[in-house]
Amino acid sequence: MSVAEISHQIQSIGFLTYIRESGYTYPMILSIHLATIAVFGGMILMTDFRILGWAMREVPVSEVYGQLRRWKQLGFVIMVTMGLLLATSEMDKYYGNPYFLMKMSLLLLVAVHAIVFRKSVYGNTEALDRAPQMPAVAKVAAITSLVLWIGIASCGRWIAYYEPKDKDKGKPAFSLNISAPPAVADVALWK
Amino acid sequence: MLIYDLNANPLNSNEWAFPLTECFHITSSALSIGMIALVDLRLLGLAFKRQTAGQLVKDTGLWTLAGLIIVIISGLLIFSSDPIRYINNSGYVDKMILLVLAIIFNYTIHRKVAFSNPSPIVAKLVGAISLLLWISVPFGGIWISFV
Fold it and tell me: Residue A137 and residue A83: Cα distance in Å, rounded?
């Protein structure tokens, strides 16, 4: 089977077809995805800011990290679940979308990031607090995390602006630009 | 009468401008809403129990404000891509009402309660209202494209 066929099989699964064709379920899932990004994405930013010494300096890193860990995990699960529903219900359009593939690759790098810095930074936050100065490795971890997550959010947005060469293959999945030229603008009506 | 040519707006003519503006919009909204959510979690008694809500407001306030400024500027730019359609879009109008309510709430009651020594019930109520208000704003944003 080709990737196109597999993608089509995936999006043909009953509840995914329902999501795609329903009037309100799709935007509802999209809204939850975005609201989760806002609430929990902000917590990721805060953890990085704390390590970089940009915010919450009076609160120890171990405290910020420890308090936010569970919430970030919860947010991550909601975000990924909603994201998977969005992507798989439109798999025909997503599988060949370079921004989608880039987003997935960056998410993979987030996993690599977590493994790489686990011992020296995230599993070691009390030592970071004891250090006279924030170790460089922790700052590198924080900056990398910022770049990765902003990249992921940006690629997510750009998914909607990719137009396949073959028009029949699909229209942009979703766009907020309600006034742009037809290729982008009719998406709002197209749902 | 002044005629506004939509095509003269770079957001409509440059293929990178609109999505890039949206990226700033989304990232900065995550910044400010995330910071407010920290305070809300504290008010709800769900995190940072060793800090006071007031201390968290002080620690996050500057980032919240910076995020809000970028969100509003990028939002106005997006709005400028087709003002008349946005004004006539019920999703947009709802979003603006919710946003104004959320901002007013944040800088009045939310702030006041965070800096006072609120009873747990008041704190929880204010935290919940704040969280709901801020979550409803991105919902409104998505709804713009679906109404």
Answer: 31
Scanning A92-151 for CB atoms below 8 A from B yields 150
Token pair 């968290």 is found at: B56
pLDDT tens sequence for chain B (147 residues): 567 788 888 888 888 889 899 999 999 999 999 999 999 999 999 999 899 999 999 999 999 999 999 999 999 999 999 999 999 999 999 999 999 999 999 999 999 999 998 899 999 999 999 999 999 999 999 999 888
C-alpha dist (Å) from residue A31 to B26, B78, B141: 12, 18, 8
Residues in B closer than 8 angstroms to A150, CB to CB, are 23, 27
pTM, two decimals, is 0.85
Residue of A nearest to B38 (CA): A43
End-to-end CA distance of chain B: 30
CB contact under 8 A, A42 and B34: yes
Residues 26-85 of A with CB under 8 A from B: 27, 30-31, 34-35, 37-46, 49, 54-59, 63, 67-68, 71
